[in-house]
Amino acid sequence: MKKIIFVLCLLSFAIGNSQTSEKEDKAAILSVMNLQEKAWSNNDLEGFMQGYWKSDSLKFYGSSGLTKGWQQTLDNYKKGYPTKEHSGTLNFTISDISKIEVGSYWVMGEYHLKRSVGDADGVFIIIFKKIDGEWKIVADMSC
To answer: Which CATH number fits domain 20-142: 3.40.190.10, 3.10.450.50, 3.20.20.70, 3.40.50.1000?
Structure first.
């Protein structure tokens, strides 16, 4: 009986420590977004896209409508922002990060592009999901 209780205690401890706190989750999500700002500002669109789920199930909704898939989203970015002059310098202003359920959050905020071809600003809501231990954007609505 003591062995069973000991094993149950170990399992309980292991399960409890395998989950991260909301504070840790939010910090990890902000880290992904910080890397995206840096990559975008270097016109490294492939690097920027590392924050997205590399799947045909990725969804991006913007002024041109719904785009499905990681590659199509990247292709659209490359077409719309072909040079450093077009991509400019990106800064996010985060208004809210809220937990949806274990392993998923939404992030609401603003993006600001400072560019020689004219600045651009807008708002977004993105959904992050923890996939294979990494936080990835699985849905993005930006306008």
So the answer is: 3.10.450.50
